[in-house]
Amino acid sequence: MTIPPSFVTIKTVHGVEVVERRVSLTDALSLEMQAIHVSSLSFSPIHPTEFYLLLPPLSKRMPFLEELEIVVRQSPSSKSPYLTMPSLELPGSNFLLLETLRLDGVALSMTSPFLTSLRHLVLTNYPDVQPRLLITDFMDALESCPNLEELEIRHYGGIFSTDTEEPRRPANLERLKKLTIQEPSIIISLLLEWLFVPVFADVHVTMDLTCAHMDMTEDCFGNLFHVILPTAQNMLPIRQEIVSIEVNYADNTYQVVGETPLGNKLVIEASFSADPLHHPLVRSIFYESILCQLGGVFHNSHVIIASFTGDLNAVTEDGWYLALTHFPLLLRLMATDTSGEPSSAVEHFFDALGHSADHARPMVSPHLQAICFRGATWNDWLWVYMTLSMQSRMRAGAKVESLWVEARGNGVDLEGKLKNAKSVLDAYTDKCSLLQM
């Protein structure tokens, strides 16, 4: 099989002028790159055999290099002979100005001090099956990069080894602005336990879940968040600053987004390799188990806005109630049901909101001011559910100021029915809008 030629993008500095050119890998390796003021190198993509050719030039000083990208084209075969490629070593003394390092399919050797000028580090697709880097060495190397602003690790966690007796020394990344991790939950847990992420950093973690290794039970789903979150609250302080949350369900992805008053976000995703939630019972168990964990994710936060989107037909009244009990300061609540017709999601939703002192359980979200529900399936009992819920909240001193419901249905004169229902609900809210989708 003929290997396609590889190319290199080179940026060089000539006074105040930056010149970019694209040359073949062979021509690039013939250049004295350390002598021609190279500011940026992008080897993307190259064949694994060509990676060996990069090692000699990258072992030399490149005092002007600010950006380095290497993408190695991996073989899809599990018997690939390139799984034992050597690790890339980048001595800090040779790359004094290097700010951006992006490696895809390359094993990186890291010791402290590492690249002290580094601002952006992206590591994806670790090419080996054996760990090569002690987690303690990795953390020490990161902490020796005082200007690090972005850290991205995707499918690279196989490089880390925990076979060390050294005490845990979390890396304090004081200037980090963005942390992205896409790994199995065990790797995410390891990294979050060892990284101190400042409160102003955006954090996005995606759990890659293999359905074949999940028993699809409540216990399994109920531990999804528990196993990845750091045990020490100060290790992920953004959790305590969240004021609004968005919960999104899709066919094979679950996502929860928390946002602070300053706009910083904590995003946690569970991404399945296939859709395990096609069975209604499994889907219901999954949704409710996740909802019950929201309080643990946003520990001691002051959430005032919450939004839920997806197939909400799988959420029972108890599921809504348990989810909302975590947020006693909630002011605005929005829900969008995408399950299609028919759906009982809206009835379960208002049943949970209507619990008051008249029942065995206390009223949820007693400060709630505005409710919006989109995608409700209309039936002749829906207005009764909503009226009873609003009545109950009013009696408990938790009157809702604004109620907005968008309904769908095939019944005759739906617009007239919504108008009649509004005339009843107007007595229990300051502003009521019932609209036909």
TrEMBL record:
Domain of life: Eukaryota
The protein's name: F-box domain-containing protein
